[in-house]
Structure formats: structure tokens, C-alpha cells
Design brief:
By secondary structure, this protein is of the alpha/beta class. The protein has ten helices and twelve strands. The chain has one domain: Alpha-Beta Barrel (TIM Barrel), CATH 3.20.20.150. It is globular.
Length: 271
């Protein structure tokens, strides 16, 4: 008998957030240099991340596609593309359509966004009917203080419990929430459309986004599991390199993350 390694067709992208404090053009440069299949644009404070014309020029210059757009859902991006959360999603969808990206990553609403939260599932369903772009809702995590758990999201932080057709699974967020990432993937089944590859050790309230293999999350087993099931969604390295001593160390981290993904995203079959 011979073990044959089969590598599924899913692409591996670099999140532009992974190069911070460098900027979006630097993410394109490094992704192209290191051999990523494309980028996920985190729409944020960097004006380039908000400008579709400039992003199109970067795609042409580096011959590297935008595979996903992360809508500006963070607390620090509340004013990016306006304050209306639905308007943000519409702009993210239009950006994805223009750039040829297949996925928009979106967070569940904050609890204080009551109207948005109330209509979230219905609104997403309506938007899905208008486009081929996938809206993949990301798992988040509760916050803890003095033994009390606070959930800042509505209807909740865990998309497994909701009826979203497509979901993003973030392995740094599973560390913070103390979730079993493999069990979540099993329960999600075909709804798992997007993976944020990162790691963490589960420090309370700290979203670490470590390079995969540097925490306690089952990053390797997750990739192997997805490969064995013929996963066809996106794998996106979304790590924190802010503490890198310099650009060389940042590049090393991003190269290590890509090598980890390529190594483990393969399925073995016996013939």
C-alpha cells in the first residue's frame, strides 16, 4: 500500500491586518513575495484599504487577487465607511464584486446595535439574494470580569447556535472563548466557508492571533481535518506581528504561517 498525499483546491490568503503597523500595499508586496494565493483586505483606518480604485491597481501591479473583504466591524472602525452597519455591508459587497472576491467576512452585531441585530439574519438573507458573494459570519468570544461573563454581541458570539448559511471560524477567537474548535467545525459542517488561521493560549479577554503552532489551538489538526473533507473555502492567515522586532522578523512570521498551512492542509489516502 502507498500513502498518497492529496492537496485540496482551497486557497491560502494573507490578511492585510497581519502586516500591521505596515499598510495595505505592504501586505500585497509580502503576500506576492512569499507565495500566498491572494489577500483578504481588512477594511480599516488605512485609507488604501477603503479605496477600491487603489486596491484594483495593487491587484494589477502584484498580479495577486483579493480573495476576501473583511467589513469594518471592529470598535476601532465604527466610523469607517460611515456609521450605518448595513451601509458598510453594502459597500463591502460592492467592493468584493468589483475586486472579484468571493467572500465578505462580517462580525455579529454589537448588543447596542439593536435595530441592526434584530434584522441581521433577515438582512443578510436579502443581501445574499442580490449577489454571488458569500457573507461569512465570524465566531467571536465573550468577555470576562470578576467571574462574570459579558456577551457584547447579539444574538450571540457563537455562530454554531445560529442559522447563518456561511460562517468564518477564527482560531484565535476559539482560544479566547475556550471553545473546542474541532467540535465547532464538526457542527458547522458545510456551513464552514472561511478559516482565519491563527493561534492563542486562551488568555482572558486577549485576542492574541499568534502564528499557528505557537499556542494551544488545534491548528494542524484543523487543517488536516478540512483537507480530509475536501474543504473548498478560504484559509486566511490572520496573525498579529506588531511585536516583531523589525520587517525581517515580520516576514519570517508570515513565511512560517504559510509553510504551516501548506504542510498541514493535505489529506492522506491509502492506495
Amino acid at each position: 500500500m502507498t500513502d498518497v498525499i492529496r492537496v485540496p483546491n482551497a486557497k491560502i490568503a494573507l490578511s492585510t491586518a497581519s502586516v500591521y503597523p505596515e499598510r495595505t500595499p505592504d501586505a500585497f508586496e509580502l503576500a506576492a513575495r512569499l507565495g500566498y494565493d491572494g489577500v483578504e483586505v481588512m477594511v480599516g483606518a488605512d485609507p488604501v484599504s477603503q479605496d477600491i480604485d487603489v486596491l484594483e491597481r495593487l491587484v494589477d501591479h502584484y498580479q495577486l487577487p483579493v480573495l476576501a473583504v473583511h467589513a469594518p466591524c471592529l470598535l476601532v472602525t465604527q466610523r469607517v465607511w460611515g456609521r450605518d452597519p448595513w451601509a458598510k455591508l453594502v459597500r463591502a459587497r460592492k467592493a468584493a464584486e468589483r475586486l472579484g472576491a468571493e467572500t465578505v467576512v462580517v462580525h455579529p452585531p454589537f448588543r447596542w446595535q439593536r435595530d441592526y441585530a434584530r434584522d441581521f439574519e433577515i438582512g443578510l438573507a436579502r443581501m445574499r439574494d442580490e449577489t454571488d458573494v458569500i457573507f461569512a459570519v465570524e465566531n467571536m468570544f465573550p468577555l470576562r470580569a470578576r467571574g462574570t461573563e459579558v456577551v457584547p454581541y447579539s444574538p450571540g458570539w457563537d455562530p454554531v447556535d445560529q442559522d447563518y448559511p456561511q460562517v468564518t471560524l477564527d482560531l484565535s477567537h476559539t482560544a479566547v472563548s475556550g471553545s473546542d474548535a474541532l467540535e465547532m467545525a464538526e457542527k458547522l459542517g458545510d456551513r464552514l466557508a472561511h478559516l482565519h488561521l491563527a493561534d492563542g493560549v486562551g488568555t482572558t479577554n486577549k485576542d492574541e492571533h499568534l502564528v499557528p503552532g505557537r499556542g494551544n489551538q488545534p491548528c494542524a489538526r484543523m487543517l488536516e481535518r478540512l483537507a480530509s473533507t475536501g474543504y473548498g473555502g478560504l484559509i486566511v492567515l490572520e496573525v498579529n506581528t506588531r511585536k516583531a522586532a523589525g520587517r525581517t522578523e515580520r516576514i519570517d512570521d508570515l513565511a512560517e504561517g504559510l509553510a504551516f498551512a501548506r504542510l498541514h492542509f493535505a489529506a492522506s489516502s491509502t492506495t
